[in-house]
Amino acid sequence: MSLCVTPSLRSQTQVIPDSVLMVIGARGDTGFVFPIRAAERLSNIRFGLLPEIFSQFADMKRESHILRDRVANLQQQFAEANGIAERRKQEIDNLNGVLQKSEKELRKKSRALRFFRGATIALAISTATLLIVK
């Protein structure tokens, strides 16, 4: 069941929902042919849903910019934290080097002290022996 809506039928008051709408251009050429229900849906989409969709799209775009800024800030903070961590690692390495030098020097002095203590004990024993022998 289809009805062709042409300029001659424009005065028709009742349009059957399943009828076909033929669009006639200003020059008299025929254009697209839409079922009436599809045209109504298209109109509903165009005037009802599209503004809402565009509004949501604009909101999503704003959120996207906010999130990009947030990601950029987090990347900057991460880079700064990595720089701080790298400096701390260098400080730790320097302190480990100082500690190793200190331990090496301490071992050297400890050996010298043990040698001196041993030499002192040996000198004391030899002196005591000389005193006893005399």
Account of the 3D structure:
The chain is mostly helical and 134 residues long. It has one domain (4-133). It contains one helix and three strands. It has one helix at residues 36-133; strands spanning 4-5, 20-24, 30-35. A three-stranded mixed beta sheet has the order 1-2-3. β2 and β3 form a beta hairpin. It is rod-shaped, with a radius of gyration of 48 Å. The termini are far apart. Residues 1-13 have low confidence and may be disordered.
Total number of beta strands? 3
The averaged pLDDT comes out at 80
Side-by-side strand order of the widest sheet: 1-2-3
Shape descriptor reads rod-shaped
- Approximately what portion of the residues adopt beta-strand conformation? 5-15%
Whole-Å distance between the termini? 147 Å
Assembly level: single chain
User: Which spans of ≥5 residues are poorly predicted at pLDDT below 50?
Assistant: 1-13
Helix content: over 70%
Order of helices and strands: EEEH
Structural class: mainly alpha
Please give the largest β-sheet.
Answer: 3 strands, mixed
What is the total domain count? 1
Number of helices: 1
Which radius of gyration do the C-alpha atoms yield? 48 Å
